[in-house]
Write a structure and sequence with these properties.
The protein is an alpha/beta fold and about 170 residues long. The protein has a single domain, classed as Glutaredoxin (3-Layer(aba) Sandwich). About 45% of the residues lie in helices and about 15% in strands. A 6-stranded mixed β-sheet has the order 1-4-3-2-5-6, sandwiched between helices. The longest helix has 25 residues. It is globular and about 40 Å long. The chain starts with a helix and ends in a 6-residue tail after the last helix.
């Protein structure tokens, strides 16, 4: 009987470890390098989506995460891409922060090039690194760029507008 309990405890421990590894992997960020931005945009051609650039030490960025979490709960098909301007060495901390918010469907990236100016320029030649920075792409590829804290009502209006336009072509946002 004691052997059965020990085996059960070992199996339970293994399952817990696998569960933790899986949930941590769900919030793993891809390395954002030269060409990544074009890859992100090209993969979503013809669909509306949002790109949010953020950092661990940006208070407004974390407030935007709360906002995105609320919107993701309400709009399950929201296509959100999160790009952390931190470093790959901070990957565990990034994953821990992302785990706090209901953003499991959001694609996550982290700056992985020592030459961050080149990455910023690739994102937007007129962006100088201020955070948070958010880009709203409609299905036609038109972009609205915003720096600073976001407004829930304005973002929701954008989502509804683009969802309505996109529903006529049966594409999800």
């Amino acid at each position: 009987m004691k052997l059965n309990v020990t085996i059960f405890q070992c199996l339970l421990g293994v399952l817990l470890c696998l569960s933790c590894a899986t949930s941590s992997a769900a919030h793993r960020s891809k390395p954002f390098v030269h060409g990544s931005y074009q890859e992100i945009v090209a993969a979503r051609a013809g669909k509306p989506f949002i790109i949010s650039l953020w950092s661990l030490d940006c208070t407004y960025c974390l407030e935007d995460m709360v906002l995105f979490g609320k919107l993701a709960k309400k709009y399950h098909d929201l296509d959100l891409v999160l790009i952390s301007t931190d470093t790959p060495e901070q990957m565990n901390e990034i994953a821990r922060v992302l785990k706090k918010y209901p953003l499991k469907k959001a694609e996550s990236w982290v700056f992985a090039d020592k030459f961050v100016e080149r990455l910023r320029y690739e994102v937007d030649p007129e962006w100088y690194g201020e955070l948070p920075r958010t880009y709203f792409y409609d299905a036609q590829g038109h972009t609205i760029a915003l720096s600073g804290k976001l407004d829930y009502a304005q973002i929701e209006q954008w989502i509804r507008k683009n969802k309505k336009i996109n529903s006529t072509s049966n594409k999800k946002i």
